[in-house]
Design goal:
By secondary structure, this protein is an alpha/beta fold. It has 7 helices and 7 strands, in the order αααβαβαββαβαββ. 38% of the residues lie in helices and 24% in strands. The chain has a 7-stranded mixed sheet, with helices on both faces. The relative contact order is 0.14.
Length: 180
């Protein structure tokens, strides 16, 4: 199958992201445990990871929430879910469920999740509005949304997320936190 000039295959984009995220250097530069703790992860939480990619944060998140917590790792790319399943098998983690889905339709129950985190996604596929609606639906009252700031201006990102029904509560480095 040939690519049109100027277009990049989603598989090539994913493989590039996988190489970057699975690099030992990346885990030193962006320590997943430090970022996840800044996002508010703690033992016993039910957590939704939006855009899990190759799972750079998935296994560390499962370790942080422990056996009484659970991680739902959502991505719309089949190679991402395949890689996360490989990492789960290698780690023996039993508290992770990879979900192949668009983040605007996770299939999770209403008010099932304590905390949602979105890391490493400079632009949300399909826009932020539909995903925020889904996050609002699945978060418990008082639930937390932690979003890693990237390219957008912080003020614009905060305004966009607040328009989705959340209240900005502060930031810890690049992690912006909101409450439902």
């Amino acid at each position: 199958m040939s690519e049109k000039k100027g277009k990049t295959s989603p598989d090539i984009v994913y493989k590039t992201a996988e190489l970057m995220h699975d690099s030992k250097l990346m885990s030193i530069i962006r320590n997943p445990y430090e970022l996840l703790k800044a996002a508010g992860l703690q033992p016993g939480l039910q957590v939704l990871e939006i855009g899990c990619g190759p799972g750079a944060f998935t296994i560390p998140a499962a370790e942080i929430v422990g056996k009484d917590g659970f991680i739902y790792a959502v991505d719309m790319h089949p190679l991402a879910i395949k890689r996360v399943n490989q990492k789960i098998a290698g780690s023996g983690a039993e508290n992770i469920k990879p979900i192949l889905a668009n983040a605007s339709n996770t299939g999770l129950l209403d008010q099932e999740i304590d905390l949602v985190f979105i890391f490493g996604i400079p632009n949300v596929a399909g826009g932020l509005t539909n995903i925020l609606s889904e996050i609002h639906r699945v978060l418990k009252p008082g639930g937390i949304l932690s979003f890693e700031k990237f390219i957008k201006s912080e003020n614009k990102l905060i305004a966009d997320i607040e328009n989705g029904g959340f209240v900005f509560t502060g930031s810890k480095g690049r992690i912006l936190q909101f409450v439902k």
